[in-house]
Amino acid sequence: MTAQKVQITPAAGKLGILLPGMGAVATTLIAGVLAVRKGTAQPIGSLTQMGKIRTSGANPKIKDFVPLADLHDIEFGGWDVYEDNVFESALNAGVLDYKTLKPVRAEMEAIKPMKAAFDPHYVKNLDGTHVKEYTTKLDLAEQVINDIRTFKAERGCSRLVMVWCGSTEIYHELGDVHRTLAGFEQGLRDNAATIAPSMIYAYAALKEGVPFVNGAPNLTVDMPALLELAALTGTPIAGKDFKTGQTLMKTIVAPGLQARSLGVKGWFSTNILGNRDGLVLDDPDNFKTKEVSKLSVLDSVFHPEENPELYGDMYHKVRINYYPPAGDNKESWDNIDIFGWLNYPMQIKINFLCRDSILAAPLVLDLALFMDLAQRAGMSGVQEWLSFYLKAPQTVAEARPEHDIFKQLVMLHNTLRGLMGESLVEAAAAEEYQDEPAT
Amino acid sequence: MTAQKVQITPAAGKLGILLPGMGAVATTLIAGVLAVRKGTAQPIGSLTQMGKIRTSGANPKIKDFVPLADLHDIEFGGWDVYEDNVFESALNAGVLDYKTLKPVRAEMEAIKPMKAAFDPHYVKNLDGTHVKEYTTKLDLAEQVINDIRTFKAERGCSRLVMVWCGSTEIYHELGDVHRTLAGFEQGLRDNAATIAPSMIYAYAALKEGVPFVNGAPNLTVDMPALLELAALTGTPIAGKDFKTGQTLMKTIVAPGLQARSLGVKGWFSTNILGNRDGLVLDDPDNFKTKEVSKLSVLDSVFHPEENPELYGDMYHKVRINYYPPAGDNKESWDNIDIFGWLNYPMQIKINFLCRDSILAAPLVLDLALFMDLAQRAGMSGVQEWLSFYLKAPQTVAEARPEHDIFKQLVMLHNTLRGLMGESLVEAAAAEEYQDEPAT
Amino acid sequence: MTAQKVQITPAAGKLGILLPGMGAVATTLIAGVLAVRKGTAQPIGSLTQMGKIRTSGANPKIKDFVPLADLHDIEFGGWDVYEDNVFESALNAGVLDYKTLKPVRAEMEAIKPMKAAFDPHYVKNLDGTHVKEYTTKLDLAEQVINDIRTFKAERGCSRLVMVWCGSTEIYHELGDVHRTLAGFEQGLRDNAATIAPSMIYAYAALKEGVPFVNGAPNLTVDMPALLELAALTGTPIAGKDFKTGQTLMKTIVAPGLQARSLGVKGWFSTNILGNRDGLVLDDPDNFKTKEVSKLSVLDSVFHPEENPELYGDMYHKVRINYYPPAGDNKESWDNIDIFGWLNYPMQIKINFLCRDSILAAPLVLDLALFMDLAQRAGMSGVQEWLSFYLKAPQTVAEARPEHDIFKQLVMLHNTLRGLMGESLVEAAAAEEYQDEPAT
Amino acid sequence: MTAQKVQITPAAGKLGILLPGMGAVATTLIAGVLAVRKGTAQPIGSLTQMGKIRTSGANPKIKDFVPLADLHDIEFGGWDVYEDNVFESALNAGVLDYKTLKPVRAEMEAIKPMKAAFDPHYVKNLDGTHVKEYTTKLDLAEQVINDIRTFKAERGCSRLVMVWCGSTEIYHELGDVHRTLAGFEQGLRDNAATIAPSMIYAYAALKEGVPFVNGAPNLTVDMPALLELAALTGTPIAGKDFKTGQTLMKTIVAPGLQARSLGVKGWFSTNILGNRDGLVLDDPDNFKTKEVSKLSVLDSVFHPEENPELYGDMYHKVRINYYPPAGDNKESWDNIDIFGWLNYPMQIKINFLCRDSILAAPLVLDLALFMDLAQRAGMSGVQEWLSFYLKAPQTVAEARPEHDIFKQLVMLHNTLRGLMGESLVEAAAAEEYQDEPAT
User: Fold this and answer.
1) CA-nearest residue of chain C to D257?
2) How far is CA D412 from CA A430, D384, D416, in A?
3) CB–CB of A72/A109 below 8 Å?
4) Where are the domains of chain A?
5) What is the pLDDT of residues D403-438, one digit of tens each?
6) Which comes out higher in pLDDT, residue A3 or B13?
7) How far is B231 from chain C (nearest CA, A)?
8) What three-state secondary structure class fits D106?
């Protein structure tokens, strides 16, 4: 099987990355990209920059295989409910130490957040002061659109992408206002309570044809109304919830247990984290949003309905605890009760001492670069091939999401191979048998 | 791409599974298979019995896809340095409790080990009493061949396979005696010190055209001399070292870290175990054999030579400790020092409270069934597609082994698909995109 | 200093141990005492039976030093909301396996719970069926008193003690009805909503001069009304909440950190348990009772008000999670953030795979035997010297409770020494310098 | 019982603290004391500075109760096999970051080690270059004595103490040369191979009447020859091996288990550390010294000979692993197999992410200050009351060492109370009953 190489617009000019929410994750991303540009750091954890891909006869870095924007051509911007510049915000976040920030201080100080579209109802534990005033939510959306245009013009960007790096909003089910674009726009005019700030950013981005990624578990772009808008403007979207610490480990370990036909009786996951994200999630309504996102993972990997003897009685519990001493060092502890031959029980305990923003920052970079690539390649709507990065991947139509990180990676690789006209067959075989000729 | 279905001889008649070493692993296997036959247990952990495979349009169990021997058609036999019958040996091993063993007690008591080919030089911490006397090692090999023939005739088996379940022998590098079949046979006549008991079993099996699997890390069939013999008699071989607890976790977690381009600075692995295996490994010479087997794993997954920024400085240390209170409950603790964005360090700690024989038993079953399948399908020599089960997979020619368990599974699946004439292409795509049509 | 030996009535005749709540803890206790009497088990974990005490020149077992009831002279009785006999209840609880229970099966089957005084308002997640009917709570109390008298007469006991082994009731603060005995008795007549079932048992016991221990964290005897009654009838009382898994570890580790003047920034404690106790605590109102009991521990050990540089900013969080796969195997995970020289941070992680009822059963035995001793020695009111066994020790008057398990043990030992006329001084010195002459 | 206050010479003038071995521990100590003097840090982890003591009616800090040297009156000096000044050595050690060291940089740079008395036979993995040349070991000892006198004179010290902070030397049993002072001195003249460098420092110190503490597990002052010298010159000595991470936890947790009469079946302890200490211990001969020191701890707490049902079959194993990624962050993992009621097994796992030098530094300070106090109070010979700080406490005559950290603390407190004429009785009672009047 041979594939046709897709026509991709070159990555000429500057790419603006717009970040609603310029807290720990966003500032860590910005500091890192600036440091990499200065040559003082490596972009560890970024698949686009460090990862390789097996192609017919070679094994290049991904950034040398597909035409991505160069890190030197990126401009950062964004919005926040606090007016601190990006350097001050990074110091407050406490993720990076001063020594790391110092060499890029001036550049970071120059980046100042625009006033946020904010609604305290959606994030009770924050009290932002640097927020837009508005009459209707439509007015608010128009202000954001205006910000986007101004940023693009002032910075001389040829393309933009937007990645939501804000807090988790409170839980909401899909309502009527989210079902059609017309209904949604009426809701904007009517100040519908069920339109969250994140939706306003997404609406503004899509109106402007700016690809949008949702890094939190909120209902944001996974609704018919905004899918309709994305289709209308031919814009790529992706979501939701960056897959960082505990869920990352879960989508690594669960496929391994399943590969070996080992049964799972219970999986208990607890987290302690002390940053702003933890504070927000200390509110039960906000936690509910996160819990739904985190719980779906195992079922998708284990398919209990198809493997009832192994996974039919699995008890899965996820807890998040605000614990200030941890700061940004999100720590997880998992207890996994498995069973094997003759039903004998065994246990796996995993303690992951991770750093939330350190894990999330390179995901934001990769998502931004890949979304820009998608747009230049003419791909619009849900970019399911980016599931690799997301805790609750948004899928096309009614498809069940894939959570197995290894299958997600194959999906991502094959999409890239397809774009470049590589045969999926040969690529797959190469991937599978690596260094030997296929049997 | 379409494939041609391979001609496979049906699994008619009885399959004899011969086990050199009837201790914890072998007796756990036998008790389990007998219980499954009685309908009182499920063969958890066995891919052949519980696992599924994605084929064109379906998702059958593996045992319903390829023509494997039925569990009701299996006969067990073997050798051991102690004369206990299999029931007594299981009680001594302490893996299974009396309640589990009771329903299959009579059948287990009927299985008595033949006298072992043993050499205390290779396993210092055991002092077997139920051993063969011999003049030369050739004489010893002929006694084993005679045992094989007698067993086959008495039990009325149509086919046999042999799986080494004995202890780890002391470390040896490949020597001259191992380089040609002629040299090896001369060594047998000369009582060459570097011919270990496990080699004698392997030689006997291959002479008789009985597929041979090495479940321990010893140098056994991975030598030119026995490869030559396997080719001569058209017999499949595989090895080495069952991949159970800690290494299993390692080949699950390491590919996950690599998928995310996260760096690894150090990986410290310690084990405590209290069974006969632990006692044997308490001797430094025997541990050396195991250590070499366990250490190779990470390099193969991470390819530090190709990814020096991420894995070039990784420090990997593996320790095994004899700790009698643990009994067969082998427990591992891993500390993994990783680094991410801007080189910030993080840690993962994994404590696996496993049961060695519970994890190993289904591997023996699967390997036996797949080796029998391979033989009936006309496949001989190294069965690299069974790497999935092995800690230090033996490869064809000079190929680098694959340790990533997910790639190993794809290799195994594709081999089965190939045997049954399924297109690898479609299968791969189905595997990758699961529930959606291929993009 | 020499002490006067106290006059202690001999432990003649039988001691009845009455247990409101005959679930996991009570049945484990009973099975164990019966097994010890048969000589098939050792009373591990029981200080009265296995522990030693240093006296002037000797080191006897405690049971050989003070005149305790003999295990052969004990009769068990109790109440439960389910009508299962003690053997059936033990099987349901799943703490002990059948092999352990079998030798004492007949004796256990002979012990049947009386109908419980129950109020679903206090324990929402249980729906008991084996419960007393009543008009007023006074009527209910009189039924319990009648049960006590009948039991004593039928079993021919010379003395009784009662130990609450029931579930944790929902949280209540002290109210008016609990302030005086008269008010409490009026409340019984008026069916006051704030009189919980546990209080009714305690009232009945104290009326009858039966020593009462509260093994749960409920407000039960720690109220002026029942203290008044205890004083009136000269009856010893103690409480509350058996100190078993996580809190036990906490009161061991915290004094150690404090001994070394190491600072503590945070202490996060989580628990998973799957027994009836866990189910009850899954209700937020019941958990609240437990949380208050568990949180007080650290402050009492660290005295942050006196050591503000070390413990002034400590963040302490305790979580309990119902997790059915764990069964009675309550498991705790603690993360302790400490700091040392120059404020450098360190961490301690403790994973305690414990068994709730296995740890609790010997505490019930010891408390029963010591309470009987106290009564025979003429000690009444709060027995603060038994703090060793309790998570939230009830104290005399306004005294601050002692949580440091090592200080608690000294207090217990000294009380016993005092009873037997041993000099506290010499005892203390012996304790401190052990095998050498004092410097 | 009333005690007589001891006559103590006031702490007038300067106290010189001499440190053989100016690596991680010594430099961390010095940086910390300098920072505390500047008021920029608290002496966390130091009992003399932060700890309190209960006395008749009060609860003062220890430094306000007994007349200790003031931190402002301390002068530091020492010897090392590398010539780096203390600031450079601290940077190499990597314990403290530059930010912490910067304010005291100048003072640290001014402290330069004297040339070391070194013998590569005793520490194979180090190759020191800054070492004394000598003909006989007596000559070497005289050079050290000369260093001591010069230091005292140049710095104007009124008193000195010496604390061994060097590496662990290889294992040696007591030999003939160590049995009498005359024999030892003859050995010095004869260059006896069994006289280690640490013994030469100790000899020099004791000759000069300088109190000596051994912070490593070597055979140094615990030999008749040097005890004889200490008696002759009336000098206090103490040893051996600072009790820091894993052993500290062990002497905290073990007494807690014993207090509850819980049995112990096994205790497995492993360590990973990556500093110079770890490198030295990677040599089996040096590890042997450490292992002996670490293994003795549990027996002393549990007294298996007196409690055979609980501790008679305990299996204790200790491992130390050199693991460079850990640096000075020594990490321990303990698995403790305990059993309770009816012999049911339970487990405790403790992962201590500690920092070796951060824990050790305040111990050196306390030991130095207390040894100086002892000397001024006229106490000579083995200071057993300082067992609190030591992994393998040296005892008077044949006495069994006390390892229980809580009993050690009582011993230390009572010694201080005795020195100040406080009644031990009242003190003990106050300690035991804390806030209430004694019963």
Assistant:
1) C252
2) 70, 9, 6
3) no
4) 14-242+357-424, 246-353
5) 888 888 888 988 998 888 876 543 344 344 333 333
6) B13
7) 51
8) helix
Residue C435 has which token pair? Answer: 């095998």
Interface contacts C/D by beta carbons within 8 Å: 245
Flag whether residue A28 sits within 8 Å of chain B, measured between CB atoms: yes
D150 and C CB contact within 8 Å: no
Chain-centre distance for alpha carbon D386: 9
Q: Which amino acid is at D178?
A: H
Is D391 within 8 Å of D380 (Cβ atoms)? no
The span from the CA of B345 to the CA of D427, in Å, is 48
Q: In whole angstroms, what is the distance from residue D223 CA to residue D187 CA? A: 14
Q: Which two tokens stand for residue C159?
A: 């003395």
User: How many angstroms away from the CA of A35 is the closest CA of chain B?
Assistant: 8
Angle (nearest 5°) at CA C328 between C324 and C334: 85
ipTM reported for the complex, 2 dp: 0.88
CA C245/CA C251 separation, integer angstroms: 10
**Does C349 contact A349 at a Cβ distance shorter than 8 Å?**
no
What would you report as the CA-atom Rg of chain D, rounded to the nearest whole angstrom? Answer: 22
A121 touches chain B (CB under 8 A): no
Backbone angles phi, psi at D85, to 5 degrees: -75, 170
Q: Best of D250, D260, D332, D350 to disrupt the C interface by mutation (most C CBs within 10 Å)?
A: D260
What's the average model confidence in pLDDT over D287-309?
A: 81
CATH classification code of C14-242+357-424: 3.40.50.720
- The pTM of the full predicted model, rounded to 2 decimals, is 0.89
Pairing of strands C381-382, C236-239: parallel
Cα distance between residue D213 and residue D164, in whole Å: 6
- For the domain covering C246-353, report its CATH number: 3.30.360.10
Collect all residues of chain D within an 8 Å Cβ-Cβ radius of residue B333.
Answer: 270, 333, 335
Q: What is the DSSP letter of A423?
A: -
**Tokens at residue D280, please?**
């030295």
Taken in order D33, D34, D37, D40, the sign of the CA dihedral is negative
Task: State the DSSP string of A179-203.
Answer: S-HHHHHHHHHTT-TT--HHHHHHH
DSSP percent split of chain A into helix, strand, coil, nearest 5: 45, 20, 35
Query: Which residues on B lie below 8 Å from D325 (Cβ)?
Result: 265-266, 315, 337
Cα separation, D164 vs A285, in Å, equals 58
CB atoms within 10 A of CB D56: 11
Low-confidence stretches of chain C (pLDDT < 70) are 1-4, 293, 423-439
What's the confidence (pLDDT) of residue B1?
A: 38
For C351, which residue in chain B has the nearest alpha carbon? B351
C-alpha closest to that of C23 among C165, C198, C119: C165
Q: What is the DSSP string of B37-69?
A: HHTS---TT-HHHH-B--BTTB--BHHHHS-PP
d(C-alpha D407, C-alpha D409), whole Å: 5
The tens digit of pLDDT for each residue in C236-278 reads 999 888 998 888 899 899 988 988 889 999 999 999 988 777 7
Q: Find tokens 């290494």 and name the residue.
A: B247
Candidates D265, D317, D325; nearest CB to B337: D325
The two three-digit tokens of residue B26, written as one number: 């072998």
- What is the C-alpha separation between C23 and C2, in angstroms, rounded? 46
DSSP code, position A209: T
Q: What is the residue whose two structure tokens read 């617009």?
A: A9
- Tell me phi and psi for residue A157, to 5 degrees: -85, 145
Per CB-CB distance under 8 Å, the chain D contacts of B315 are 323-325
Q: What distance in Å separates residue A106's CA from the closest CA in chain B?
A: 18
Cα B168 versus chain centre, distance: 12
Among C266, C326, C351, beta carbon nearest to A325: C266
Tokens of C266: 């945070």
Which residues of chain A carry a pLDDT beneath 50? 1-2, 425-439
